[in-house]
Amino acid sequence: MPRVSIIVPTFNLARYIGRALESVFGQTYTDYEVIVVDDGSTDNTRDVLALYAGKLRYYHQVNKGVAAARNRGLTQATGELIAYLDADDMWYPGKLERQVAFLDTYKQCRIVHSDTAVIDEKDRVIYSRFNQQTKRAVPQGQCLMTLLRHGHIEHLTVVERRECVERTDGFDERLRGVDDYMRWVLLAIEGVEFGYIDEPLAMYRWRAGQFSHTRPYRQTLVTMFELLLSEKGLQARCGREAADLVRNQLYTVRRDLAYLDRTDGRSRDARRQLLGLIREWPFRAQLYVALLKSVFPSRRSMTSGMSSDRQWKASSPADNTSISQEEPRRSLWR
To answer: For the chain, how many structural domains are there in total?
Structure first.
């Protein structure tokens, strides 16, 4: 039985997946299995994967989203350690060796992640050490409060013990784009200790149209934070400070949504969002300023809204409802 299970979800990424897999097969650590879950690809992904017959296990499913694909992979995994790699990302050759050795040395850590390089669609390096160069707060140790402020763990850098999966029931398929973030937070709530290796062990591919810069991403963050406060019982389990931090995060994201609605010409939606915020935070003056701006929108925002509406009508067919992992991606800038 292999010690490490590597889960590779993919959707219409035939042009990249071969290189992702080559980065796996080039690992200096070799006690692993590779599980590829094809989330309903319509390109030649299957043909590309046929070149690796005997080196991986392939599963196909109807398009359900990346969280569902990862969960399908988890049901097939046999290793005591789990690693994740999206089909357009890559690993450096020593990744698994470094992280398996780390977990063997630091038994108290149940999960380890690392810094990452960031490359573009043509493999040009944007950041060689993203966390270090951007001076991001890096979650490590007992890190719940840090994680609630910033979701700075990239799944392609993670190796976790199987017990972590069992403690959180996999990835939440309701949370497109933040399903991994929710998992790390839930592990931190459970008191799991996170390890960190301060060197880039993977290459994250940045592609145009990042999901984190869109309204649906922010709406999903709202859902995640609301679930933490309600379904997951954050305050009862972790105290008032953690719950207040999430409430403030909710405030920020919902205010961002109101701003997006206003600048896109959806003044009525902006007002609805702002009135809800005012009911909860009646003493925050900036909300009243924003509400006035939504009542008397600038000419620029009205023009932006009309342009946005025309673009939506031209580019969004009513039957385009499948959940795509290919476009747009969640980015590191969370």
So the answer is: 2
